[in-house]
Amino acid sequence: MKETYRLYVSDHATALPSDATPNTRIAPKKTYYDSSSDSEPDQTHILPSRSRKMMKSTVIEQSAPNKPPKLTAGEITPQVTCDWENACDTYFLHKQVDATDQVKMIASGMADPRLRTWYLSQRATLNAGTFSDYMTALRNAWLEKHWATKLRKKSKLADDLTLKEWIEEVKYLDDKCLEDLASQRKIAKEIHRSSKRNTTTANKPSSLSSKMYNTSSPRLGSLTETERALLMKHKGCFKCRKFYVSHQSKDCTNGAPDASSYKTLTESNANAAKPKTKPVAAVGPVGAVMPSSVLDDGSDSEDDMCIAPFETAHLIWPCLLMGPSSESPEHFKALIDHGSHLVLIDENIVKRLGLHRRKLHTKIEANSAFMDNSSSPFSFSEYVLLSPSSVNHDWTLRTICAIIAPDLAVPLLLGGPFLSHNCLVIDHDRRTCIAKDSNYNLLNPPAYKP
Questions:
Q1: Under 8 Å between Cβ of 267 and 243
Q2: For residue 106, with 0-12 CB atoms within 10 Å meaning exposed, 13-18 middle and 19 or more buried, which class applies?
Q3: Which of 94, 125, 364, 384 has CB 3.0 to 4.6 Å from 66, enough for a Cys bridge?
C-alpha cells in the first residue's frame, strides 16, 4: 500500500475587489477563443462562495518524490504556493522532466476546480512558458494584491528576499524565539530556586540573571542559491543544512545550525557526508564463485569426518528471456544467489537481446570478495528491465531491475531483489525455491502435460 504524505496549510483570507461582497470570491472564467489569435482573453466573473470559516484547508499530496503532486481545493495562500512550488521542483528533479514540459506534467495535479478552470482558459500560454512564469502567473491571479510587500512589512525582513527565502527566515525566527523562551524559563526557575535556598543574598546580583540579557546570538544568514542547489542535489534539509538525511525541513528535529560556527556549504561537504556503498558479495571480476576442488583426491585428513560439506551445488534456474532483437524466447541458466543484494546481467546478453539500457540515478560501486582493500571498486551505471519466465511458461516473475555488469561469469545472477520482489523462499536442505503466493517451485517445476 502506498503511503501519501500530506502537507496541511493554515487558512488565509484572499483579497477581493472593492465592489465584491464578503460572501463572494473571484474565479477566472473559462472562455473559448480562436486558436489562431495571438492573445487569450482575460475575463473574470464573480461566483458565490462559502465564508472563510467554512473553507477547507488546502492539502498538497505527493505519494513519492517521483510522482506528480496534487493540489486539492481550498484557500490559496503564499504558503500554499511556496509548498506547491517545492513539491513540483522535487518531482522535476527526481523525474528529470525537461523545462519545456514541466507545466504540462503537473497540470493534472491542480484538483481545485477554480484553479483548473484558470489553467484551461490560458493553457497554451502557460504551457509555452517556463515553470517560473507559471508560478508568477498563479500568484498574480490568486494571491492578494501587493501580498509580498505586506508580508515583508509585517515581518520586518529585508525587501530583497524571495518568497522561499522569506518563509525560511520566518521559520528560523520562530524556532529561535521558542529556543530563547525555553532558555529564559529555565533561567527563571533556577533564579527562583536559588532565592529560596539563600534568602540573605536576595539583593546580590545573580550570575544567572545576567544570562537573561545575554541570550542573543549571531544571526544565521539565508541560504545562498548555490547552497540550495547542493542540498537539493544531495538530499539535504534546508533547516539543519545537513546532507543525505531522510527528512524535510518541515519535519526536521535537529534545529538550525549554530550561526557562530557555521561555514558556507560546499561540494566537498556533500561528498564527505555521502553514505558508503555496500560491497557486493561474490562478485568479481563481476563474476560468481564457481565450483572447484578443495582437497586432493585420496586425502586422509581427519577433517574429512566433518559433518558439513566443503561446498554445495549452485542453485541454477533454467529460464527464458526475450528482447527486441530476438524472434523467440531464448534459454538461459540463471544463478540464484541470496547472498547478493543485486540482480546482475552480463553485458553481452543485453547486446544479444537488444534490451533497452537505462541510466542509474546514482552509480553503484562494488568490490569482489577476493580483492584487497587497495583495489579500485567496480562501478555500475546502467540497468535493464527483465521479466524472465520458466521454460514451460508456467510461471513468469514480476519485472525486476537488472544491473548491467561486464564479463559476468553467468548470464544472469538473481540476488535479493529477485527473491523478495517475487516472494520466493529458498530451502537449502531440500534444494527448493518456492513462490509463497502460488507454491510454484522454480528448481523442481511440475511435469508438463501436453
A1: no
A2: buried
A3: 94
pTM: 0.35
pLDDT digits (tens, 9 = 90+) for 108-155: 999 888 888 999 999 999 999 999 999 999 988 888 877 777 766 665
CA dist., res. 435 & res. 419, Å (int) = 9
Tell me which H or E stretch contains 193: helix 163-197
The alpha carbon dihedral of 217, 83, 86, 27 has a sign of negative
Helical segments of 296-376, H only: 347-353
Q: Identify the pLDDT of residue 411.
A: 92
* Cα–Cα distance, 168 to 78 (Å, whole number): 13
DSSP string, 129-163: S-HHHHHHHHHHHHSPTTHHHHHHHHHT--TT--H
pLDDT in tens, 431-443: 899 988 888 888 8
- The distance from CA 264 to its chain's CA centroid, rounded to whole angstroms, is 24
Q: How many CA atoms lie within 13 A of 162 on its CB side?
A: 12
Instruction: Determine the straight-line distance between the first and last CA of the chain, rounded to whole angstroms.
Output: 39
Pairing of strands 70-71, 344-346: unpaired
Q: How many helices (H) and strands (E) does the chain have?
A: 11, 15
DSSP sequence for 49-68 = ---GGGSPPPEEEESSTTS-
Q: Which long-range contacts (CB under 8 A, 24 or more apart) does 40-47 make?
A: 40/121, 40/122, 40/124, 40/125, 42/122, 46/20
Share of the chain above pLDDT 70, in %: 68
Residue that wins the pLDDT comparison between 374 and 425: 425
Quote the CA–CA distance of 370 and 148 in Å, as a whole number: 62
Instruction: Kindly write down the DSSP assignment for every residue of 234-281, as one continuous string.
Output: TT--TTT--SS-S--GGG--S-PPPTTT-----HHHHHHHSPPPPPPT
- Exposure pattern of 22-31 as b/e (b: 16+ CB <10 Å)? eeebbbbeee
Residues 6 or more apart in contact with residue 313 via CB below 8 angstroms: 291, 431
Amino acid letter at 344? L
Q: Position 48: which residue type? A: P
Element (H, E) at 379: strand 378-386
390: left (phi over 0), alpha (psi -120 to 50) or beta: beta
| pLDDT at position 36 over 50 | no
Give the DSSP H or E segment for 94: helix 78-95
